[in-house]
Structures are given as C-alpha cells and as structure tokens.
Amino acid sequence: MKILFFSGDTDGALPTYGSRRWIQSLNWETTDKWRAWNMNGQVAGYVEKYDGLDFVTIHGVGHMSP
Length: 66
Known about the structure:
Rossmann fold; alpha+beta; four-stranded mixed beta sheet; 4 strands; single chain; 15% helix
C-alpha cells in the first residue's frame, strides 16, 4: 500500500511542522531525504519519502490544498 500525506505550508490548523514530527515518530525508514520540489523553476514545496509513505508540502497553501 502506498500512502501520500500532503500539507499546505501556511496551514494554521494543522501545521507542517506537527505533521512532519508525527511522521518521524513512526520510525519508518527514510528512502528520500527532505528536499525541495520545483515547478516552472520555482520551489513549489518539499518532499520526504519513507518506505510506503510520501510526505509532501505545498508552498503557499493552507488546509484547503486539495
């Protein structure tokens, strides 16, 4: 099973920092370290991948990111 967990980086209700700390507490193996992802030559957010879970942030978006 593959899981995608995403978070807007301006979300005050569920901050990215809290989501990231929760995911790190799972102690899953990191397969791709925290890094920026780009769109049209600009940083669009950050991504970190674990065994079975991708955590992605979306720059400039709140909790309505979907």
